Each structure stands twice: as structure tokens, then as C-alpha cells.
């Protein structure tokens, strides 16, 4: 699979993350069958800002619930503000009640029709 094919698959998953929930780079990579590719999910999300339509990249955080990608949003507070506008509490770049806000695509994505 090419990087752009993988990136497109990342974008498809991220678009499904429900409002008010977050997922992780690693959870998305596991769902896509590439559990060692969490960093590549991050690279894909870095490219999500170049005119591909709305991709809610702000809903993807690291495995501990930290806003490690916040510097890619133009301003350091943009990611936090977007999450807080969805009712997610963020303190010191950490999602509060992370285990309750976490959305795991492996468990919650609709099955693909084959």
C-alpha cells in the first residue's frame, strides 16, 4: 500500500470519530492492520490540513491522552479549543476522563461490507 493509500484510510477512520470523543494514533494504526504505524498516522494527519475537506484531526491524541500534535494546528491552543468546544475537558494538554472519551475503532467502527 502506498503512503497516500494509507493516509486516505487514516482520513476515513478519523472522519468517523464521534463528536466529543477522541482516539489515538496507535488505535487507528491497529484498526488499519499496521499496529507499528502510529507515527505514520500522525504524519497522515499532518497532511490533513491541505484541502482534503474537514478531517477532525483534533480528535486524535497520543496513547496517554496528551495533545502531542497541537503544534500542527497553527496556534498552540487551537487543538485544545476545538476539543473543549465538543465538551472535552483538557488540562495541561491532557484529556480529562480519557478512558471515558476514548473511541477505539477496532471495537466501534462499523464493519466494512465485503
Indicate the topology.
Blueprint: H1 3-14, E1 23-24, H2 25-31, H3 38-46, E2 60-61, H4 78-85, E3 90-91, E4 94-95, H5 98-101, H6 105-108
Helix pairs in contact: 1-3, 2-3
Structure in words:
With 114 residues, the chain is mainly alpha-helical. It has a single domain (3-54, 61-102), classed as Orthogonal Bundle (Arc Repressor Mutant, subunit A), CATH 1.10.10.10. Helices cover 39% and strands 7% of the residues. It has 6 helices and 4 strands; from the N terminus they run H-E-H-H-E-H-E-E-H-H. The strands form 2 sheets. Strands 1-2 form a two-stranded parallel ribbon. A two-stranded antiparallel ribbon has the order 3-4. Helix 1 (3-14) crosses helix 3 (38-46) and helix 2 (25-31) packs across helix 3. It is globular, with a radius of gyration of 13 Å. The model has no long low-confidence stretch (mean pLDDT 91).
Amino acid at each position: 500500500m502506498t503512503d497516500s493509500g494509507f493516509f486516505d484510510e487514516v482520513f476515513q477512520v478519523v472522519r468517523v470519530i464521534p463528536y466529543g470523543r477522541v482516539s489515538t494514533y496507535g488505535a487507528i494504526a491497529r484498526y488499519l492492520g499496521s499496529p507499528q504505524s502510529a507515527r505514520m498516522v500522525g504524519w497522515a494527519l499532518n497532511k490533513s490540513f491541505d484541502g482534503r475537506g474537514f478531517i477532525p484531526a483534533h480528535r486524535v491524541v497520543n496513547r496517554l491522552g496528551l495533545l502531542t500534535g497541537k503544534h500542527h494546528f497553527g496556534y498552540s491552543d487551537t487543538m485544545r479549543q476545538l476539543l473543549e468546544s465538543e465538551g472535552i475537558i483538557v488540562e495541561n494538554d491532557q484529556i480529562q476522563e480519557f478512558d471515558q472519551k476514548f473511541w477505539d475503532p477496532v471495537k466501534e467502527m462499523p464493519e466494512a461490507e465485503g
